[in-house]
Specification:
The two termini are about 30 Å apart. This protein has about 325 residues and is of the alpha/beta class. About 40% of the residues lie in helices and about 15% in strands. The chain is built from 15 helices and twelve strands. The strands form three sheets. Strands 3, 6, 7, 8, 9, 10, 11 and 12 form an eight-stranded mixed beta sheet that branches. The relative contact order is 0.20. The radius of gyration is 19 Å and the shape is globular.
């Protein structure tokens, strides 16, 4: 089960070389969708969650521990990532860390009002001057963004009380109203930003890298409230029917420096294998701007897991608010 765009064979070339074909993929828009699908009986062997969401799969009894001794590239993973929250749950490694990056704001420097560049902020999504010219991702993380705008600290936004969560509703409604569309696949915002249909969007690093290479005047904001960071990877599920050895080969392929090289050069994200930075194009590594994932994750607001029952309230609120778009 995979994010859109991560089913490219370059991410797992050694697997394709060994088995002659890529695995079958089921694409998801977010981890909650993936979780519900597996809970409903979908027989997946592996899923690509992030540190803030892998715990929900563990809680649901859907994962199995990963034997890192079966991974030839494990020793090349940045050491601090091997024991991080979400990678290890309880006494078990439940996710091999693979990719890391940002969730922020990509904006057209030639189309936003002149005052924005001097005061980059998540508040652009609630600015009525941009009604119909923005795009928020279809994610309940929008409530966490509003939490920042309401002055909650970067810990509080992941544990808002019922009253604090309800206080985000008016600004969430404004975000939905101002969004031309709520995106599920980042190719939607890449195209809309390139054409000028929208002037700003919630985006990952790849969007800015791709548009800059096309000559589009775009910038990745450093919002004054903070930029979000994430670490994602591969988790083995106990619902799969395939050969477990093949599943481990798939995970190991993802951990390879060659996979990391492709991640850095094609997507502009970091990778967990330190050797990837040694073989990647030095210009692309320089463009990434950082080679230490620990430093990167510490410099931003790392997405944290929201307690399960509370997370359902975040999701419910977002579903109610985005229904206004129907």
């Amino acid at each position: 089960m995979e994010w859109s765009g991560y089913d490219q064979p370059d991410f797992f070339k050694s697997f394709v070389d060994k088995y002659g074909a890529p695995p079958a993929f089921s694409i998801f828009a977010n981890e909650d969708e993936a979780l519900q699908k597996v809970r409903s009986g979908f027989n997946a062997d592996a899923v690509h969650p992030c540190t803030y969401s892998v715990g929900y799969f563990v809680e649901a009894g859907l994962t199995k521990p990963i034997d890192t001794g079966r991974l030839s590239h494990w020793n090349d993973v940045f050491d601090p990532l091997k024991t991080g929250v979400g990678v290890v749950v309880g006494d078990n490694v439940v996710m091999i860390p693979c990719d890391w990056g940002n969730s922020g704001i990509a904006y057209r420097t030639d189309l936003v009002e002149p005052d924005y560049a001097a005061n980059e902020s998540w508040a652009i999504f609630t600015d009525d001057r941009y009604e119909g010219k923005l795009s928020m991702s279809d994610t309940e993380a929008a409530a966490e963004i509003v939490g920042l705008l309401l002055g909650y600290d970067k810990k509080k936004i992941f544990e808002m009380s019922d009253a604090e969560l309800e206080a985000t509703r008016p600004l969430l409604e404004k975000i939905v109203k101002n969004s031309r569309f709520l995106w599920k696949d980042n190719t939607e915002i890449n195209q809309a930003l390139a054409s000028g249909e929208i002037v700003a969007a919630y985006a990952w690093n790849e969007t800015v890298k791709s548009l800059k290479e096309q000559g589009v005047p775009v910038k990745y904001a450093q919002p004054k409230e903070g930029i979000f960071t994430w670490l994602c990877g591969m988790t083995l599920l106990n619902t799969g029917k395939a050969d477990e050895a093949a599943a481990y080969d798939f995970l190991d392929a993802w951990l390879s420096p060659e996979s990391g090289k492709y991640m850095i050069e094609a997507y502009g994200y970091g990778h967990s294998n330190r050797k990837a930075f040694e073989i990647a194009d030095p210009a692309q590594v320089a463009a990434l701007g950082i080679t230490d994932p620990v430093q990167h994750l510490n410099n931003g607001i790392l997405f944290e897991p929201v307690e399960t029952a509370r997370n359902q309230k975040y999701i419910k609120l977002w579903e109610e608010v985005k229904a206004l778009k129907q």
